[in-house]
Amino acid sequence: MSAPKKVVLAYSGGLDTSIILKWLQTEYGCKVVTFTADLGQGEELEPARRKAEMLGIKPENIFIEDLREEFVRDFVFPMFRANAVYEGLYLLGTSIARPLISKRLVEIAEATGADAVSHGATGKGNDQVRFELSAYALNPDIKVIAPWREWDLSSRTRLLEFAEAHQIPIAKDKRGEAPFSVDANLLHTSSEGKVLEDPAEMAPDYVYQRTDSPLTAPDEPEFIEIGFEKGDAVSINGTPMSPATLLTALNEYGRKHGVGRLDFVENRFVGMKSRGIYETPGGTILLEAHRGIEQITLDSGAGHLKDSLMPRYAELIYNGFWFSPEREMLQAAIDKSQEHVTGTVRVMLFKGSARTVGRWSDHSLYSEAHVTFEDDAGAYDQKDAAGFIQLNALRLKLLAARNRRVK
Amino acid sequence: MSAPKKVVLAYSGGLDTSIILKWLQTEYGCKVVTFTADLGQGEELEPARRKAEMLGIKPENIFIEDLREEFVRDFVFPMFRANAVYEGLYLLGTSIARPLISKRLVEIAEATGADAVSHGATGKGNDQVRFELSAYALNPDIKVIAPWREWDLSSRTRLLEFAEAHQIPIAKDKRGEAPFSVDANLLHTSSEGKVLEDPAEMAPDYVYQRTDSPLTAPDEPEFIEIGFEKGDAVSINGTPMSPATLLTALNEYGRKHGVGRLDFVENRFVGMKSRGIYETPGGTILLEAHRGIEQITLDSGAGHLKDSLMPRYAELIYNGFWFSPEREMLQAAIDKSQEHVTGTVRVMLFKGSARTVGRWSDHSLYSEAHVTFEDDAGAYDQKDAAGFIQLNALRLKLLAARNRRVK
Amino acid sequence: MSAPKKVVLAYSGGLDTSIILKWLQTEYGCKVVTFTADLGQGEELEPARRKAEMLGIKPENIFIEDLREEFVRDFVFPMFRANAVYEGLYLLGTSIARPLISKRLVEIAEATGADAVSHGATGKGNDQVRFELSAYALNPDIKVIAPWREWDLSSRTRLLEFAEAHQIPIAKDKRGEAPFSVDANLLHTSSEGKVLEDPAEMAPDYVYQRTDSPLTAPDEPEFIEIGFEKGDAVSINGTPMSPATLLTALNEYGRKHGVGRLDFVENRFVGMKSRGIYETPGGTILLEAHRGIEQITLDSGAGHLKDSLMPRYAELIYNGFWFSPEREMLQAAIDKSQEHVTGTVRVMLFKGSARTVGRWSDHSLYSEAHVTFEDDAGAYDQKDAAGFIQLNALRLKLLAARNRRVK
Amino acid sequence: MSAPKKVVLAYSGGLDTSIILKWLQTEYGCKVVTFTADLGQGEELEPARRKAEMLGIKPENIFIEDLREEFVRDFVFPMFRANAVYEGLYLLGTSIARPLISKRLVEIAEATGADAVSHGATGKGNDQVRFELSAYALNPDIKVIAPWREWDLSSRTRLLEFAEAHQIPIAKDKRGEAPFSVDANLLHTSSEGKVLEDPAEMAPDYVYQRTDSPLTAPDEPEFIEIGFEKGDAVSINGTPMSPATLLTALNEYGRKHGVGRLDFVENRFVGMKSRGIYETPGGTILLEAHRGIEQITLDSGAGHLKDSLMPRYAELIYNGFWFSPEREMLQAAIDKSQEHVTGTVRVMLFKGSARTVGRWSDHSLYSEAHVTFEDDAGAYDQKDAAGFIQLNALRLKLLAARNRRVK
């Protein structure tokens, strides 16, 4: 790979990406464009602008964007249509944010004539894969610079020395090492590393930053009603909301009731197991409610097909293949299933749990006439079941007879 | 089908199966053998013996058996190795009990020279299918009598008239109609029908019979440690237990902390949707813990394959195909994966939730050496990730280049 | 089910459906509308009109339609996009024709105010299921009359007596029984029953009606070039053709070279195995060519997903679930994959075989630059493979180390 | 990775692996152990021994083994139980040989105290991945040396210079470059590269080395009968044979009749497409026959599950994951299904084709009594089909009614 001339850097304004910024300049002698996005991580963006300016980036090369609506509408919601969970439990909060960042990195590179993009993910994690696969899928000629895989600043001490040598200001609380590492966006907060590295040890309470403890959550349950249209949440308690507004509101409900904590050991795409503490307050409520509305509006054939496709779909997102033809194929199938997933779900929030307690819809397939224990007025002929069973049993009978014969 | 001469009836001792007993005698003039099993439903069995005797069944034709250990060991535990849930949420508590009952019905039929078996399931539900597919799979020549699909006792009034006409005692509380219908065994209690038929309406609190309300559950969390060997739970807090004993103990923990309630609308195999309230206290804890121990002992390739097979496996059990070659094939694959699923999981129980908070094992695949944020002493070469990403990206790059070319 | 008042009958003009026509009139006293379609079965349609008129059907109740283009365009081609084969070998020639017939039956019923439709399929086969599931999926209120499941004309003798009693003309060659039963349309001809019922016995040569014997086919191979656009065949040897014209032409090539014969034992949806002789001359060439063009235009991620979905897709079509949400979901995924399946395939036809021998496309993903044994000018860095292998191996190494440790 | 001290080399005795042998000695100063296996590639092994001796390898470090029986019994046959084909057409002839070679390399390394193994596969292909994943899965501490990814002998000229400089004899026909590259074993011969690199161009006839041309094959068909037990072929025309003997005999039948040629473009695991010419004469007959015997002995539930698992199973083998838990899980499921796959298949061989024309078995599930067009004496009640269809249709009706209601 020839040296990059101009690099768009995913820049948070924090110490690490500031070091990367300077390192790119010194190591490659290249121009740097910074890109800072609001994906709902709960940090101010303007300090990143000032920091970039201070590091010598010209205003026209500083890109700061609020991507929250796009994030929820085009990434989070499509994923939730699938009820996607990775390895049974993880709601993919980090995974789903990476493709959007890469998409904007590539677009800004094309707009600014940059030939490379760069990110601050380490060489051990999944995020490097997600960033880079997305970038290459969108621009096959782009270069990707992953400083953590290249440089020799492998210890905290070396990093701080580099920062000091290049006059990068170091906040006091960054002098020492954080007891664990955090990633956050509108969907979730993840914590991993250091004090969390022993999966036998219970995570200390201070790790949780996004949710109140179920132990101290309100003693009374709270009920909310979430409205859906074609598989996407569109309202809470009857109030229509935009995607990001709605997820923000659900996050607040979830935070209050301690919903969405997960202590998890997962398999990284790069081959090792890692332990993370995930907090997905609004997303956990949303998944429960989406399942609730599908229960009455989705046909069993569609539902069972979705269930069987989901693990692969979740794995694709986890592994970084959002921009792949197979993810798009699965999305086409999933979206097709959601045409009538419209209605309202009542969810009870209480001390760490979100539970569906009622659901209704004009699009309901639930037929009280068929299922009732009372007289069904001929909606269903129980005698049909005899033939249904006989023909389902036929192959089993032939099999049993054969097995008896040739035992 | 020619008329049966001797029928083995799945007999609970209750009013409905007593009516069936008498109806079989009068309708077909056949001998009746009763089979009453303890699967942990929480009812005395001896009254069923007395009732059967009273209805004229000879002692040698009354079979009463405690099947709890066999139920958990050979049915519940194999199913939990798969983390089986139907339609995302249902732990299959009713489904998994049916094949065992059918197995014993068929075995007793063969032992007593009976040519038919009979059950009290209605023509609208899944249980008829499960009973009958299992019976036919085990004995292709057996006859199955399903009175609810045959007789004209379609109203409560007609049933009571029949009972009175045949001197079947009617308990006072059975005069009126129950507000909902219940099925129970060691794994779960399900409630459905009548007051539960509107899925928009929250289930009344009196429906729950097996779990205390999360709202009134203890204000302090309780921690338990569940030991696993080859995928099956074998101990609680270090005390080894037999399968049924262990599940019974977990049920008690779950009851106390309100764990395992589910308000669910599902797709029946016979084509309609129905709403049920399920309580699976011990099973819910067991599923959480099994996932917890798999997190550190199961390889990702095995785990992801399991996840992708699970929906089909669960569907097979739900639909009544326990005794089918495809369920056995899947079981062989699942069991193969469990050879090292051995270790201990710490679970926190609190107001309706069971959450893994720690797990450890001699068989652990978790490698702190690889995953650590600290210096890994060469366990992992971050530069490998570059090649890994490049080759995973190659097809995406070729695709992007093609799509740009022929757009 | 209340008696039908007006029935649309799938009417071939042959003896069996003429008997059904008359039986519907006499059994139910209902009006009959006849529907005769040209799906390429190779029979004149006008005799069916005359026959219907002779049996008293008014001209406005006689529907005769050429559906060949719709059949190939909207049913055969979408199915071939999936490379669908049932149980490894069967190209679904009969299965795919049934939904279209049902669709027109239901549409004609709605246009003529009929409340029922009727077909001539027996109670043992798959076709009854396919006809009826399609009809119910398109009109939930339609009645379906399946005379073969209802009447008592169960022997050839009884049928002929009924025909004579109702003055239905019987062609001389229909007096005796045919040595096997045939179904045909533009995609295939199937033969089954009678002389074919022993799967150990080789099918006699006179069974094959649609293809010349490979043994007597031309001694020289013939090469044809099939052009594709977005997954569908659009030209032969450079000549653009409509779907039905193209399939007709491929059938002629296949017939001449003995392509597409299959001696097959399959599992019917109704639970039994049956043996059929299938001839799918053009379809066999088309499948081979479609695979050929996908080889260079389809990405591996998309291709492997398609391969894994195909068995379920084929099973749905075989079982009669064309008009189901899950088939439509899968179709959405498959169609999504075909956007660049455009190019040309060269196929060699010779004595029973159709083999791809070349393929080219502007949309090709094949990169000689990458794959060449010669110097690749830096297109591919072989050192990347080391990292790729290391990270793919990591979990296997951790596994091997664990297994050595706790053996 | 520290330098290897003793390396077991997969050694063919040819020029390339002789150069590798010498390069390992000179580059690493390590001891070399040679391993030469007969997997049915059709070459003498003794010349390899002499060549190794001439290059200074001591007799006790030269391992020459006939692995043909183990290859077919433990690798080829288990794979054929699955009817495994990669991307619809490729019978995995190269893929399946690699794990066995790696297994012996690792075992010999452990026996001789070697710390590394080495192979002659290039950095662009799949074989490096297969060799190395297998080696690491069997010994997590083994080193793997892949000279083609390390050295700078990247042109034919450099290689020959190296050979001459180290007095490695060069056969005259190796001076020039081969027009394509060949791999062979008892299952197949593959050819790729050079003259075959344009997938639009028909492969020249001289590429085919293992099969006679269909065009010049015998003008008369030949019929053979293959006997199976539990899914494996055990006899031809009634003569019992060992696995390798049987495959050798099938290869001869296939060669004679031009069976098993494939012109194929495939997706390599490393991300690129490549074109190969494969000849699998005996394997093609075996696959056809195995499908034939499964048609009558395998239940539809088992068969359909197998079909749905096969693509993943084939992909695992292709990608080099033979020794992975997920391949073993799938194998457990597949093997479970083969318990009754016992019987005989009659196959017709003719000018490039192998077609099942008859099959019979004591384990047959085919029931003429059920399927017959004649009177079935009550084996099957056609009226059962009505109930079967009604309940299968119920969800489709509810769906159609809903869709009409809320359109």
TrEMBL record, chains A, B, C, D:
Q: Which GO terms describe its molecular function?
A: argininosuccinate synthase activity; ATP binding
Q: Where in the cell is it found?
A: Cytoplasm
Listed under GO cellular component are: cytoplasm
UniProt entry tagged with the keyword Nucleus: no
Provide the residue positions that the database annotates as binding ATP. Answer: A10, Y11, S12, G13, G14, L15, D16, T17, S18, A37, G120
Q: In which pathway does it act?
A: Amino-acid biosynthesis; L-arginine biosynthesis; L-arginine from L-ornithine and carbamoyl phosphate: step 2/3
Q: Keywords assigned by UniProt?
A: Amino-acid biosynthesis, Arginine biosynthesis, ATP-binding, Cytoplasm, Ligase, Nucleotide-binding
Arginosuccinate synthase-like N-terminal domain: residues covered: 6-169
Pfam families linked to this entry: Arginosuc_syn_C, Arginosuc_synth
GO biological process assignments: argininosuccinate metabolic process; L-arginine biosynthetic process; urea cycle
Question: What InterPro entries does the entry give?
Answer: Arginosuc_syn_C, Arginosuc_syn_N, Arginosuc_synth, Arginosuc_synth_CS, Arginosuc_synth_type_1_subfam, AS_cat/multimer_dom_body, Rossmann-like_a/b/a_fold
Its Enzyme Commission number(s) read 6.3.4.5
- Keyword Protease annotated: no
The Arginosuccinate synthase C-terminal domain extends over 180-398
List positions binding L-aspartate: T122, N126, D127
Q: Where does L-citrulline bind?
A: Y90, S95, N126, R130, S181, S190, E266, Y278
Which reactions fall under this protein's catalytic activity?
L-citrulline + L-aspartate + ATP = 2-(N(omega)-L-arginino)succinate + AMP + diphosphate + H(+)
Query: What PROSITE patterns is this protein classified in?
Result: ARGININOSUCCIN_SYN_1 (PS00564), ARGININOSUCCIN_SYN_2 (PS00565)
NCBIfam families referenced in this protein's UniProt entry, alphabetically: argG, PRK00509.1
Q: How does it assemble?
A: Homotetramer.
Its family remark reads: Belongs to the argininosuccinate synthase family. Type 1 subfamily.
| Protein name per UniProt | Argininosuccinate synthase
Instruction: Give the originating organism.
Output: Pseudoruegeria aquimaris
Instruction: From the UniProt record, report the name of the gene that encodes this protein.
Output: argG
